[in-house]
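Key result, reporting period 2: structure in, sequence out.
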């Protein structure tokens, strides 16, 4: 029996992490390490469901690995690895695909969005993406999955797949629960605050990257789309201000009431500057640590090699039991 609950999460190496990735997901991963057993993964196999330039993907994958370390994931406490290094994910994916319905996959909003955005490449991997995500999670029998709100539907599907497998073959998989932050689970675009901030946004002003320098962060906050009023209050209809208040609350630890009184009588210009400065100061140690880590390729290699070995050992046990349960002939 495991004594601590197990956490699993992953992030795609589709570019530098945004402030949305950071606030909604990654920054919560470090503190969880003290209370839980944690396994974190750079999901390069998910990234290729959208066309990637090979050299860039390789670079983004290494950068993402180092960024996760810079954001507080300690390879001594957690298992941190690159998805394609651990073959069990692809193997379990096949079994889970055969236990996932076409109709379920067709309902996924991410599939609908991404196939609309890339109409010339609606590939089978994009369609079965959630089954691979279920394999990531179920290979370790994770209890909890810390993600942003946009991943809730995929997680719900992973739960259904686990439950269906358990009904067909007998209780086996842990049915994972989402673990979603109360504030900041959906950081919005700075240019269109009704849309989520996303790594793949084409407008650079819409997105704060966690490696942006202080001036860039302040400039992007200053240009953030707000409304024609002048009051800094969290209220329905004030999407731009609500988003900036959420960001400010997340990086300062202040609540909305504190923020409203701090800026009462002040204008949007003052507030935007304060948000930009607070974000930049908060991210400064991440930038410094990343710059240090990314120079040491040998150390990174040592970390991701060890991470993959541990992850393989762990997940191979699950996969062998699954193979047996579904009726494959045992190899040993
Ligand atoms: P892409 O644009 O390539 O789809 P993405 O920016 O949506 O990428 P992912 O790699 O899909 O990022 O997500 C990594 C984690 O960050 C997930 O847990 C996801 O829920 C979370 N996340 C992504 N965007 C936001 C956001 N705007 N606010 C809060 N959490 C987010
Ligand atoms: N689909 C997720 C990334 C992801 C993930 C996972 C998250 C792949 N496998 C397993 C949690 C658990 C995304 O796009 N953010």
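The corresponding designed sequence is given below.
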């Amino acid at each position: 029996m495991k004594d601590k609950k197990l956490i699993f999460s992953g992030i795609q190496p589709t570019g530098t992490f945004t402030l949305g990735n950071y606030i909604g997901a990654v920054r919560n991963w470090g503190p969880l390490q003290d209370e839980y057993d944690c396994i974190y993964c750079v999901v390069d196999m998910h990234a290729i469901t959208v066309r990637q330039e090979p050299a860039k993907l390789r670079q983004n994958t290494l950068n993402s690995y180092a960024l996760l370390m810079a954001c507080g994931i300690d390879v001594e406490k957690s298992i941190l690895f690159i998805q394609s290094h651990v073959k069990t994910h692809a193997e379990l994916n096949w079994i889970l695909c055969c236990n996932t319905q076409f109709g379920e996959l067709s309902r996924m909003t991410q599939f609908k969005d991404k196939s609309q955005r890339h109409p010339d490449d609606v590939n089978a991997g994009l369609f079965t993406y959630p089954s691979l995500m279920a394999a990531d999670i179920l290979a370790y029998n994770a209890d909890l999955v810390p993600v942003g709100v946009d991943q809730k539907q995929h997680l719900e599907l992973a739960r259904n797949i686990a439950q269906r497998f358990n009904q067909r073959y007998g209780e086996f998989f842990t049915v994972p629960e989402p673990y979603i932050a109360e504030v900041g689970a959906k950081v919005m675009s700075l240019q269109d605050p009704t849309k989520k901030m996303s790594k793949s946004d084409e407008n650079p002003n819409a997105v704060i990257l966690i490696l942006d320098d202080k001036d860039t962060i302040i400039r992007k906050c200053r240009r953030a789309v707000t409304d024609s009023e002048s009051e800094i209050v969290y209220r329905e209809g004030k999407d731009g201000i609500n988003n900036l208040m959420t960001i400010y609350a997340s990086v300062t630890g202040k609540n909305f009431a504190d923020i409203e009184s701090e800026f009462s009588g002040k204008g949007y210009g003052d507030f935007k500057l304060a948000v930009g400065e607070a974000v930049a100061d908060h991210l400064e140690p991440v930038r410094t640590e990343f710059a240090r880590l990314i120079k040491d390729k040998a150390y990174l290699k040592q970390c991701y090699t060890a991470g993959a070995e541990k992850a393989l050992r762990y997940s191979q046990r699950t996969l062998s039991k699954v193979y047996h349960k579904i009726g494959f002939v045992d190899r040993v």
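The chain has a mean pLDDT of 96. The chain has two domains: 6-184+297-326, 204-291. This case is discussed further under Risks and Mitigation.
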